[in-house]
Design goal:
about 525 residues; eight-stranded mixed β-sheet; Dihydrodipicolinate Reductase, domain 2; six-stranded parallel β-sheet; 2 domains; 15 helices; alpha/beta; Rossmann fold; globular; binds 6-O-phosphono-beta-D-glucopyranose
């Protein structure tokens, strides 16, 4: 039977590609290894990388957390996690046994200097035993309040290395990166006191998604899109990150202190927006791309406060239903304050003050408990200068749309008007559709696979610089403050299983425009 992997390998579009790079031998130190992220995403991603042949001989994972665990206990915990969450299924018992040999555990209480000394000794002995050459990648998947302390403790124990040193030492930081401009700046200062900026890799897992990277390929590996990628031809842009999930498991505990603007808008959506709106970089290297992204973030007009031109709407879901299933309201979710005013939906209209985008509205929306899981970027082009076909005038959004589907069903489609066959000149919109799955075949790696591999290779292109974090917070913080200062909204204001608050429609002021019906 042709498996996805085989279809991928035999696909002519994949033939003659240069082999992927394999990193130098190294030890990945997963701090917070007993947490949810490590079990659901990180260790399964490392297993998938190992199984696909991307990891070097001697590759080692040293899990660290506060629990008093043994190597064997960690292996048992991760066995269940990998069998359930690995992308490459079914997990072969021999494959797992091989991988399990690279897994070790070290107890580290994050505020205990002695534990870091012990960590250093363990790293040394593992380096000798497994011939990792002493290269280390620390991955902080702990609660965010520990990030600064762990970085400082690693430096204090002489485990932080330095820029351009061999063996190399790098630090990967998970989100959330701060709660606002001031706390993010403080975290950046703490990290930079312990590590050189070139050693710090800030994760935004959206950048690891294939179709998000494809925004760059589509824009800059083709000549036909760039000439129309500007205010002369683009009417507006819509970015949607819709989620069906609510507050499953213990998620409400974190989410209720964050809300949609911190959880999704400040990071994932701003990253996607900056890739869509940036100028062509001078090269495809990390520095050039990050510089252009920062310029976009700097040029976004304020969403709140004096002189704000942007606008926003927030929402929170109440009880509802979907496909016959009754859904709780947000305030009834586990670990959520029953009087919570945290938003589970946010929509914004913003403007980017550059020659390319001046006056073009960018509409962004994201929410939990919407009817679908779907992430897309839709470029809505202007209407033709003259209405030669009467029918088009009556159709809202009749002009061309280019839609980049990030997930699911990754692909790109272009809609345009065509004549309906027949005796009369009748016009209907039709689509040209490119689908990743059917064109390239094979499975697409998970975002975390790509990002972990890049961090081991030392390529920071798909990671966030300190400046990007700073400018994204400078945009979102005044918005959060203005919400704090205004009276609490009439929450809940949308039913679970619907497309968010009706008020979000008011962000569109031009007749005939509105949110895409997905
Ligand atoms: C995370 C957010 O960063 O991204 C979650 O904290 C959200 O709230 C998730 O559900 C969405 O990621 P994905 O890859 O499922 O789109």
């Amino acid at each position: 039977m042709a498996t996805n992997e085989n279809r991928g390998r035999n696909n002519p579009l994949r033939r003659d590609l240069p082999p992927a790079m394999v990193p130098q031998p190294c030890c990945v130190v997963l701090l917070g290894v007993t947490g949810d992220l490590a079990q659901r995403k990180l260790v399964p991603a490392l297993y998938d990388l190992a199984t696909s042949g991307f990891l070097p001989a001697g590759f080692t994972i040293l899990g660290a957390a506060r629990r008093d665990f043994s190597d064997q206990q960690l292996r048992e915990l991760m066995k269940a996690a990998v069998f359930e969450h690995a992308r490459i299924q079914p997990v072969q018992p021999e494959g797992w046994e091989d991988f399990a040999k690279s897994l070790f555990y070290q107890r580290v209480r994050f505020d205990e200097p002695g534990d870091y000394v012990a960590l250093g000794c363990r790293l040394k002995s593992l380096a000798a035993e497994r011939m990792t050459g002493g290269n280390r990648l620390y991955y902080l998947s702990t609660a965010p309040e520990h990030f600064a302390m762990i970085a400082g403790q690693l430096r204090g124990a002489g485990l932080a290395g330095g820029a351009n040193e061999q063996p190399w030492t790098r630090l990967v930081i998970e989100k959330p990166f701060g709660r606002d401009t001031a706390s993010a700046a403080e975290l950046n200062r703490a990290l930079q006191a312990a590590f050189d900026e070139s050693q710090v890799f800030r994760i935004d897992h959206y950048l690891g998604k294939e179709t998000v990277q494809n925004i760059l390929a589509m824009r800059f590996a083709n000549a036909i899109f760039e000439p129309i990628w500007n205010r002369r031809y683009v009417d507006h842009v819509q970015i949607t990150v819709a989620e069906r999930v609510g507050m499953e498991g213990r998620r409400g505990q974190y989410y209720d202190t964050a809300g949609a603007a911190r959880d999704m808008l400040q990071n994932h959506m701003m990253q996607v927006l900056s890739l869509v709106a940036m100028e062509p970089p001078v090269g495809m290297d990390a520095r050039s791309i990050r510089e252009e992204k920062v310029k976009v973030l700097r040029a976004i007009q304020p969403l709140a406060g004096p002189g704000a031109t942007g606008a926003s709407v927030r929402g929170q879901y109440g009880p509802g239903s979907f496909a016959g299933q009754t859904l709780r309201g947000y305030r009834q979710e586990e670990m959520v304050d029953p009087d919570s005013n945290s938003e589970t939906y946010v929509a914004a209209r913003l403007f980017i003050d550059t020659w390319r985008w001046s006056g073009v509205p960018f509409y962004l929306r994201t929410g939990k408990r919407l009817p679908k899981r779907l992430t897309e970027v839709a470029i809505q082009f202007r209407s033709p200068p003259m209405a030669m076909f009467a029918e088009i005038e009556q159709m809202p959004n009749a002009a061309n749309q280019l839609v980049l589907r990030v997930q699911p069903d990754e692909g790109i489609s272009l809609s345009f008007q065509a004549k309906v066959p027949g005796m009369r000149m009748r016009i209907r919109p039709v689509k040209m559709d490119f689908r990743y799955g059917s064109s390239f075949g094979g499975d697409t790696p998970e975002a975390y696979e790509r990002l972990l591999l890049d961090a081991m290779l030392g390529d920071s292109t798909l990671f966030i610089s300190a400046d990007e974090v700073d400018y994204a917070w400078r945009l979102i913080t005044p918005l959060l403050e203005s919400w704090q200062e205004s009276p609490p909204p009439p929450f809940p204001n949308y039913a679970a299983g619907t497309w968010g608050p009706a008020e979000a429609d008011t962000l569109f002021t031009t007749p005939g425009t509105g949110w895409r019906k997905l």
